[in-house]
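User: Can you help me understand a structure? I only have the sequence.
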Amino acid sequence: VKVSGEVLNPNSIVYLSGRGLKSYINGAGGFADNARKRGAYIKYPNGSAKATTKFLFFNAYPKVKPGSEIFVPKRPEREKMNAQTWIGIGTAVASMAAIVVSLIRQ
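Assistant: Let's start by predicting it. Here is the structure, written out as tokens:
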């Protein structure tokens, strides 16, 4: 089973019946800091793929088969807010507050 993507040590691990997706990921060193854990999926030897799904509070991991490839995608980078953005938000909030105050006084 090949484990690649955002894991600490991408490599191939010998298939053992009964082991789950998380077991193989742990065998590759576990998730990296920037891994998108819920986006992990398995690509089977026949070309089909199956992703991790979530039901209520539980994650449902697909079954691992011999010759499969597990891929953990990278989490997208978040854009940090700079001073200009904060000033724009502050101005918008102050304008809305002034409008509400003027409407209440009339």
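Now, to help you interpret it: The chain has a mean pLDDT of 89. Residues 83-105 form the longest helix (23 residues). Let me know which part you'd like to focus on.
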